[in-house]
Amino acid sequence: MPDASPVPPSYVRSPSVAFLGSLAVDRALALHDLAGSLAHVEMLARVGLLSDEEATALSGGLRQIGTEVEAGRFSWRPELEDVHTNLEVRLTELIGPVGGKLHTARSRNDQIALDERLYLRECVHRLGQRLLALVTALVARAEAETRQPMPGFTHLQRAQPVSVAHWLLAHFWRFDRDLDRLLATVDRAEVSPLGAGALAGSTLPIEPTIVADRLGFSRAFENSMDAVSDRDFFAELLFDLSLLAVHASALGEEVVLFASTEFGYLERSPALGTGSSLMPQKRNPDVAELVRGKTGRVVGDLVALLTTLKGIPLSYDRDLQEDKAPVQDAVSTVEGVLEALSALVSSLTIQRDRMLRAASDTELLATDLAEALVRQGVPFRAAHESVAAVARSKGGLRPETIAPLLGLDPDRSTTWCGPAEALERRSSPGGPAPDRVAQQLAGARSRLEARRHSLSSLGRRVERVQELTRERAK
């Protein structure tokens, strides 16, 4: 039997190891790599490529390494270039030459592709939990604000009356779609690539479905070349996170605006940020501004990965080593954004009187007035022109100028123009009327329950890694 050296000489002697090495980013995949190796060992034993004794030794060594990694006792060796070689060399040190059998019918190409899919699961589960906390906070705040009027805006101009609850729920539905996209991305990635080898499978009698089943994947790969080169799941993840960050930025921008002196809809409380180092009167919305600012970084991560992928021929190329850094950066950034936003939403203090005064602007009722004329049989274009003429007149849209158009007495006109009644009128499906908002809230609570169930199911798949690495050798 040839000597099984624990350290491949090519790694030690390479003058470019610092440039070639990926350990700084892929060591985060250590437990995923060990779980994949354990499933691979079980498969090799079941198809007869390992004896029971060899499989027991390999599994025991891999689990010992898992203990070292989790306890922070593993000695990483940069000269070994990547996570895979570090773990395999350590395994050979622990159990001897039989450690060299671990790589039977496997390449680092299909190995890293597997690790990344397991890592994707974990990231989406973590992000999903934080996103769930944010949307839960939005629903909780909305439940208390179904009758608090505020202006809705188009072109950053007061447009029509809405409620604070309706505004918060608009952000809820955006973030709910973000969570839906993340869950769909991880579901599409539930394909095990292990067994694809370097690019063309193996001449040995392997069974990739055994590994897929053991790791909780829905199926094994269909094409070995595609299996080792596919990074669609990372590109999708970064798109999902980019759009999520854009949505977070929009909410951050509104908080910045609404907390300004010019709007005054939100109290400039310490929860929003810090004061100025020079101006004693200032309280800056730092949290919301940073949420807004970090979006460019996440979008940049997406562009970086797509640019890397755009010119790579099939199948595996070393360019793919650059796929992990932007993903790790985006995941870490968005995690921080979600935590900050959840705390921010929960602590928002609404300046009710200021919002009420703004929502009492009768110009916000111009469309209501035109539609009231439509109910009287006036064509909408004619009604539009009639209301516009009053709005442009010296008196503008005021209860006393609105009354003649509607045929109401002045007292009734004043009530008609009130923001509470204006909200009640906007009762079309999906509108801001309190009864419609109550329907939205019921739908939102139902969505929250469904999302909790989906994340719980994903969590059970994520646990496969720990279940494998912490099992006692059989």
Which labels suit this protein?
474 residues, mainly alpha, Fumarase C, Chain A, domain 2, two-stranded antiparallel sheet
Brief account:
The protein is mainly alpha-helical. Helix content is 63%, strand content 4%.
CATH C-level name of the largest domain: Mainly Alpha
Q: Largest sheet, if any?
A: 2 strands, antiparallel
**How many structural domains?**
3
Number of strands: 4
Compute the average pLDDT: 93
> Helical percent range?
55-70%
Distance between the termini: 27 Å
Helix- and strand-based class? mainly alpha
Assigned CATH superfamily of the largest domain: Fumarase/aspartase (Central domain)
What oligomeric state do these chains adopt?
Answer: single chain
Strand content: under 5%
CATH architecture of the largest domain: Up-down Bundle
User: Order of strands in the sheet with the most strands?
Assistant: 1-2
Secondary-structure element order, as H and E? HHHHHHHEEHEHEHHHHHHHHHHHH
Radius of gyration: 30 Å
CATH fold description of the largest domain = Fumarase C, Chain A, domain 2
Unreliable sequence segments: none
How is this structure best described in words?
With 474 residues, the protein is mainly alpha-helical. It folds into 3 domains: 9-104, Orthogonal Bundle (Fumarase C, Chain B, domain 1), CATH 1.10.275.10; 118-191 and 223-357 and 441-468, Fumarase C, Chain A, domain 2, CATH 1.20.200; 361-417, Ribonucleotide Reductase Protein R1, domain 1 (Orthogonal Bundle). The chain has 21 helices and 4 strands. The protein has helices at residues 9-13, 17-20, 23-26, 30-46, 52-70, 83-95, 108-143, 164-188, 208-214, 224-229, 232-258, 286-293, 295-309, 324-347, 352-359, 366-375, 380-392, 399-406, 410-416, 419-425, 434-470, and strands spanning 149-154, 157-163, 191-192, 219-220. The strands form 2 sheets. It has a two-stranded antiparallel ribbon. The mean pLDDT is 93.
